Every structure is written in structure tokens, then in C-alpha cells.
Amino acid sequence: MSNTVSLNTEKLLHTPSPHLFSKRSSAWIMQQVLIALLFPAIAATYFFGWRVLLMIAVGIISSVGFEYAYQKLRGLTITIYDYSAAVTGMLIGLSLPVTAPWWSIIVGSAFAILIVKQLPGGIGRNAFNPAVAARVMLKVFFTPWITNWVTPEPDVISIATPLEYVGHFSRTVPEEVPGLWDLFIGTGLGGNVGETSKLAILIGLIYLVVRGIINVKIPLLYILTVAIITSIYGDYSFTYMMTHVLSGTLFFGATYMATDYSSGALTPDGKTVFAIGCGILTAVIRIVFNFPGGVGFAILIMNGLAPLIDKHLAPRIYGHRKRPAQEHQL
Amino acid sequence: MLLQLMKKREGAYTVERKRRTEHKPTEEASVPEYLIYPLSMHIGAPAKPVVEKGDYVKIGTLIAEKEGFISANVYASISGQVKEISDQPTMNGKGPCIVIKNDYQDVYEAPLLSEGEELTVDQKKSLIEQAGVVGMGGATFPTSVKLSPPPEKSIDTLIINGAECEPYSTSDHRLMVEYAEQLIEGIRVLHEVLPVTKTYIAIESNTHESVAVMKAAIEDVDHIEIKELETIYPQGSEKSLIKNLTGREVPPGGLPADVHTLVTNVATTFAIYEAVRLGRPLTKRITTITGEPIKEPKNLWVRIGTPIQHLIEECQGFQSKTGKMIHGGPMMGKPLTSGQVPITKGSSVITFLEKEEAVRSERTPCIQCAECLHVCPVSLQPILISNAYENGDIDQAEKLGAMDCIDCGNCSYICPSKIPLLDNIRSAKSEIKARKEDN
Fold it and tell me: Which of A83, A102, A193, B70 reaches 20 to 30 Å from B192, CA-CA?
């Protein structure tokens, strides 16, 4: 056997099974999310212009920068190469209207990364979605600067959002509201730049599902729940229901935010309850209260409830009658 | 389709590497000068040697006798002389073995039964026991024990396991393609000794050829159904098969007989055929020798006791460097560090991996993707058990069902953060066991 490679038994690995590992890494997963966010980013740039690109850049650079600085100063392992901070930054950049001042993006990033993500211990340990928490915080504290619902350039004017017409106990859709097709494509719409084109978000959603990054039941059940509740409330008016489904942050939040691993539910049944819960809260907040941002609040509330949901919905183990009793600890 | 996507998978789509050997007919492997027979090539008590140094043995001579209820006989697979009884490397580390020097005469011992003999049910069961038949899918549990459950656990369902889910293995597939008739005869034997009312032959859908051959073979046999199953690991695990085919679940710590089911691997079924119809003890089996480093991967008929090194040469040696040599497949197999380890009754595949394939990248923090929950065939929460173990909370690990883990390896395979989930669960299990023994 002179021409063959011999078996050097001393160099053989002898770690226990399994002996093969999936090629996916956490960084690869985050890269896929960034790719999926490109679709709404492209649409936003088309509708709102080049400033969108700068918003995204400021979001990513500040988020990654804060994470790096925090970990460097505290002597922790630098985790910016897992791209999760970049995902947060890109989400923040896309979560604000085109008129949002630069400082608001940086303040949002600082809040998301330093307080929401790093304080509890970094990636995988945050109870709340950093980007959602940041946008809700900005909405609550900095309203005049960033909630102007502006239409695309050149006529930057502030008008009411479609949700202000269909929300707050209204059961019909007034004529001022854009048509369903415009809501879907995103033409002539204002709002936070990333969430205007539902078509672009849908493409991103399909990409994430095909790549196996997100569980399709979360966005599906979330949107379906909102559809069912608004349908019943709106006397089964298709236009009323679809205006709710296609307006605001619902598509964007259901695709990119409710699907966040760390802040969502871990268990399969928990994910179902989590998604339906997001849907119920979103619909209720929209119908009862007269303010935008229902999706953000709904997701944050469900984030807070997720550990409790998981605790009660641990999967039933093969051969056992009941679900295991457990403490949720991570 | 959407519902399909929303369902929990209870398995992982691992790499598919059967193509190397799927269409290669079995070949008879040559036999080396020395064969090594571990006394413990089955689950249970080691067999007790009944030969001494210098004794002459034939193919089919009993060389070690089962000791106790859960144990199995061991037979010589060559004719020649007992060289020594000593500790040799086996797949479970060094252990007592009988070493026989080949005289290359291939003299056969008389079969365990004479031709044309009418057998009672008990005689048939006894032949299976005598022949040393054990679960040849890798578990190596003595088959005779499974055939005689207590009366309240009588078997009504038989599952013939041809769902070879380890990604490289094709030995069961080739057996089905080439020996369908004998397999059906083996199933008939099982029907004769067990009160079964339903028989399933489970085959993964990726091996079309074996599905087609087996379908043709069962045409005139009653109560048999071929179940073509999704190619998903670990489809062929006993517990998954029983649940997927019968809807029954084996209770924690229990056996398939608890739910009136018997699962036998196709290779075992073939051995049952040989024992009861031909009176032949178990002395050879089909083993797939495969993996990227192997120059010419093959499905070989191997005499039990043949050292792996000899089979590497049968496959023209290596074309690249081996980083890991595995007894079994890459998901559940045992790593080996010596080419002297012999093929035993449970050796369905020997897998060779290049170093780059087998190395786990550096661990990063858990991102809570929940993939480990998704792929667990018994619905555990692997990351939570792993965390409990790492936090020193063994009670919590037990509450979370660590003892229900079937060691399939899916969690460690899928984890994007490369957390050693199964290693931690195994450690938790052994601590739980150790505690129980202390009390």
C-alpha cells in the first residue's frame, strides 16, 4: 500500500458523537437576516431617497460601535463579528421616518445595545428585542421629532397615518386612506421607511423562511390574528380588515421583530401563543387607543411574557403523559 | 404545505452521503490471517469462552457461550486454531477477546439443525438464541430476549427496520435489494413464533431501489405493509419508528414490548432466517466501508472478527488523510483509535471522515434559535438541560427529562453556536445515574 495515505492512529480525533456538524453558524444566520432586510431597504431607498441608506449606515455603525466600545471597556469578548449588532442597527435605521434626526438614530442604538442587549449579558440573554425597545422608547420620549408621518420627497408633508383613520373605535375606512394596492406596494405612503412596502417585506419573509431562519408560524399567526379580530370588529369588511393588515408596522414587525430568537418564546407551543398574543394585543391597541406604535408595544409585552409562556408550555416528552414542570432558566 | 412548515420536525435533515455505496453490490471480503472475537459484542453479560489456546475450530464452532439471560453466543467465522484469549482493542476500548489463526481451509461445522426437521415454536426461538442473533442495527440487544416477552406484553405489531438513517450507511439497503426473498422468509419465521397481526417494513424514501424490490417481494404475503418514510434523521430509531408507524409511544425507561411492538433490523431478520431455516449461526454480516478518505467505498460481506485495517485494504486504502475513524455512522457512531478493532455483530458501517469534516468550530453564546428543540425526536429542550448541567443543577436536568435522551446527536449537530449539547446531556445522565446508585 505504498501509494496510499496510511492511517496515523495517533492523530485520530476521538471525541464522542455526533461527528459531523451543521455548517450554519450564528454569524451566518445574522447575515441572512441582513440580506432579508435588504429588500425593504431597497424599497425604502426607492421611495424616500438616498437618505435611507445613510440612516441604515448610521444605525449599523452606531450599534456596532456601541457594542464594541462596551465590550472593550468591560474587558469582555468582542461579539460584533456575529453581526447581531448590525441587525439591530439596520432595524433601527429602517424603523424611523425619513425626517428622523441623526441623533435620534444614535440615541436609539445606544439604548438598544447598551441597555436592552448588553446589560442583561449580551446576545441571547436579552428579554426584550433591542430594536423594538429602542423605537418604542424614541416614540415615547421624542415624539415631536420622529413621529411625523411624512410622505416621500419632494413634498415632505406631515399627514395622518392610515391607522389614525381606522383605529380608535372607527369601524369603517374613510376615503382619505390610500387604496389596498398602494398600501401593499408602498407607493405614496409615509411612515417609518422600512415598513412602507409590504411587497418588499414579503420577499424578505419568504427569503427567511426558505433559508430556515425563522419559523413561518410566527408572522403567519401574528398577521392572521390581527386579520381575524379586525375582520370581526369591522363587520367583516374586507377593505377595513386589509387596511389594518397592510398598514403600520405589522408586516415589518411580524417578519423581523416578533421572530427575534432571544426575546421570543423558545418552545414550539410557546411560539404559537406568542404570535397569537402579539396579534391580539396589536389589534386591541389599534382599535382602542388612538396612537401608532401598537406593534412595538404588543411585541414588548409579549417579550416580557415569553419566559412565563415557555415555562407552562414545555413540550411533552416522548412517552410521558404531561409536560415537564420546570423553571425557565437561561 | 404551510402546515407542514409549521409542524415541529422532530428530526434533522442531515447530510446525505449514501450515494458513494448505494448502488454497489455486496462483495465477499477476503479473510486475513488472524480474526479477533470480543467476548462482549452484544449488550448484556460477556460470553464465556468454551475453547482454549490451541483448540481447532471450524466455521460455526461455538467459541464462547452466553452467560445469563441477557447475553449471546459467539461463533468462529473461520476454520483454524485458537491462538490466544487476551485483551485486544475493541470498539468499547480494550477487552477480552478470542484470537483465531486462519488455516484458510474454510471447513464448516455441521448446521444447528438437520435438514427437513419439523420445528416447534420453542425450538425456533431456541435456534435464534443459539445462533447468537442480536440487534444488528447497532444496538446489539439479544434478539431472543425480545422474542419472549412476559405474557401481558405479547407482541401484536412487528416492525422490520430498513430505515437506515445514518447518513453514510447502505448495508441494510443492499441487503434488501439483494436478499429480499430471504428477508421475507425471516419475516415468516417471526410470524411463526409471534402472535403478530400487523407487520410493517420501514424504509426511508431516499432508497428507491430497496422500496421497489421489497414491494415486489411482499406481493403474495399477508399482513405486510411497506412504509416509505421521510428521509430525516433519526427516522430509524426504535422509538421514532414505533410512534410514526403505530402512534404508540414507549413509556419512559420501557421497551417496545411495553407497547406490544417488536422492532428488528433487516440484517437481524436475515440472521433469523439463516438460524431457523438453515441452522446457521451468526458468523458474517454486511458492513459498509465508506467516507471521503476511502479510495473505493464498498458494501462488504465480512466475517465477524475481521480487523478494520484489513477492510481498509480491501477498499484500496485511503485517498486522503483520515481525521476520524468511526464504528457506525457520523451521528451516533463510536470513535476508534485502532485499526485492529474487529467487525462485530453490530458493525453496519465504518465511517472515515477527513479532519476538516469532523472538527467542531469554536463555541459562541447561545442565540436561542430553538433549533435543538425543533430537531429533538423525543421533544426535549436540549439547551435547557445543557444549561442546567453547566450550572450544576442536576435535579433540574433530570426534571427536564435528561434520562429520556436517546443520544441521536441532532442537537449538537444542528447548534449554530456549536454548544456541546449532547456531551452535557450525557454528563448529566451519568451524574443522575451515579446518584441513583448511591441511594
Answer: B70
- Residues A48-107: tens digit of each pLDDT: 999 999 999 999 999 999 999 999 999 999 999 999 999 999 999 999 988 889 999 999
On chain A, the residues whose CB falls within 8 A of the CB of B250 are 318-319
Which domains occur in chain B, in start order? 27-110+283-356 (3.10.20.600), 121-278 (3.40.50.11540), 371-438 (no CATH)
Q: Distance between CA A7 and CA B320 in Å, rounded?
A: 10
Length of chain B: 439
What is the rounded average pLDDT for all residues in chain B?
93
Burial A22-43 (b: 16+ CB within 10 A, else e): bebbbbebbbbbeebbebbbeb
Q: What local confidence, expressed as pLDDT, does residue B114 receive? A: 76
Count Cβ–Cβ pairs < 8 Å, chain A vs chain B: 217
β-strand B198-204 against B224-229: which pairing, if any? Answer: parallel
Residue B407: closest C-alpha in chain A? A17
Within 13 A of B344's CA, how many CA atoms are on the CB side?
Answer: 29
CA pair distance A298, A293, nearest whole angstrom:
9
Specify the pLDDT at position A327. Answer: 47
- How does residue B324 score in pLDDT terms, banded at 50, 70 and 90? very high
Measured between alpha carbons, how far is B18 from B24 in angstroms, rounded to an integer?
11
Of A17, A216, A266, the CB nearest to B370: A266
Q: Which residues of A touch B321 (CB under 8 A)?
A: 5, 8
**Closest Cα in chain A, distance from residue B14 (Å):** 8
Q: What is the ipTM of this complex?
A: 0.90
Domain residue spans in chain A? 26-147+161-312
Contact assignment for A5 to B355 by CB distance below 8 Å: no
- The answer to whether the Cβ–Cβ distance between B2 and A216 falls below 8 Å is yes
CA distance linking residue B173 with residue B293, whole number of Å? 22
Q: Hey, are the CB atoms on B331 and A17 less than 8 Å from each other?
A: yes
Domain A26-147+161-312, CATH class in plain words: mainly alpha
pLDDT, tens only, B372-407: 999 999 999 999 999 999 999 999 999 999 999 999
**Nearest-angstrom CA–CA distance, B342 and B340:** 6
Q: Do A25 and B361 touch (CB under 8 A)?
A: yes
Mean pLDDT of A28-37: 97
What angle (nearest 5°) sits at the alpha carbon of residue A310, between those of residues A305 and A314?
165
Query: Residue B66: is its pLDDT beyond 50?
Result: yes
Chain A: residue nearest B411 by CA?
A18
A318 vs B330, B379, B387: nearest CB = B379
CB contact (8 A) between residue A262 and residue B2? no
Quick one: pLDDT at residue B415?
Answer: 96
Q: Could you tell me which of B186, B44, B181, B77 has the C-alpha nearest to residue B127?
A: B186
The pTM for the full model equals: 0.91
Return the closest-CA partner of residue B24 out of B246, B290, B251, B406.
B290
State the amino acid at position B7 in one-letter form. K
* Sheet containing strand B48-49, strands side by side: B48-49, B62-65, B74-75
Contacts for B118-122 with beta carbons within 8 Å, 24 or more apart?
Answer: B119/B276, B121/B192, B121/B193
Task: Quote the pLDDT of residue B293.
Answer: 94
Amino acid at position A253, single letter: G
Q: Which residue of A has its CA nearest to B313?
A: A1
Cβ-based burial of B43 (10 A; exposed 0-12, middle 13-18, buried ≥19)? middle
- For an interface test with A, the pick among B308, B312, B338, B379 (most A C-beta atoms closer than 10 Å) comes out as B379
- Cα distances (Å, whole numbers) of residue B312 to B287, B299, B300, B371: 12, 12, 11, 37
